[in-house]
């Protein structure tokens, strides 16, 4: 599965839903959800049984789709019409079906919203937990969850590993966010004991930044597309069917060699990753977004992912502001694939005439910024590869 296939499904589904927003269940199944099953490699009737009988609440009910391997249902998909909002009662209904038939995986959807479930057994306790709640347009950002419900992943046992890791990462993220201050103090105390008490205050600040980066990296992995080095980024991805836009203007002043970059060698440089589709935002706004900022920095360097894999752009920071105050060339949401931007995401604006393309970009070796990382201007100037500066 790849983003292009998911985006094609979204494009087709949105067209259908826009033309018939009040479709009933039967039409939603025919016009939207059969294609969703195809996306997950489940075929009707080879390995998908319609109207599968199951006992629940003392009665016999029909599950819309039972996904079958070797004659046994391994997942249920319960469908509702596009005209019906998903509710807790619908979740309880699907949960009962899964529990009664010992089915591990479940999906509840009305074509617009997709809720994913997993049945877990812990000693004598059986619990069906929601593992994802995703709007149609956000499906490309949740590829790991989608992959877990593909036929091959369930058949091979990979689904359990994928969802287990997602669950553990979410727990880790919650702990890091809830206990950030305490963890930073503990880490700084350890460094002070092992190294020197004189670094205690500096270590605490750096520890908080480390925790922020860990949270960012966890979010990147949960939402990642599994594409290998340089596949994750938290910034703009452009708009349009192919995820790209044509920049309305270009604030890149020109090219510059790294040894010509002026400034204190100890000055802090924030290194952000971006896909090539994010470069139009950079060029037309003389800025970068939408990112969480943990500390102040004087410069920005942009690492371009995908086939490029180089630190390729550089700029001097003017200020950091919320998207609503950034005076962007287009509405903020037009640059992102999601339908909202978190309140803590900011825009880093550059000084006028300070955005350059590096004539001698820093090539990837083994390290690359999956999310915001920091280096120094001196390290950027002298680096032979990304390993020398990250």
UniProtKB/TrEMBL annotation:
<protein>
    <submittedName>
        <fullName>Type I restriction enzyme HsdR N-terminal domain-containing protein</fullName>
    </submittedName>
</protein>
<feature type="region of interest" description="Disordered">
    <location>
        <begin position="221"/>
        <end position="259"/>
    </location>
</feature>
<dbReference type="Pfam" id="PF13588">
    <property type="entry name" value="HSDR_N_2"/>
</dbReference>
<feature type="domain" description="Type I restriction enzyme R protein N-terminal">
    <location>
        <begin position="47"/>
        <end position="124"/>
    </location>
</feature>
<dbReference type="InterPro" id="IPR029464">
    <property type="entry name" value="HSDR_N"/>
</dbReference>
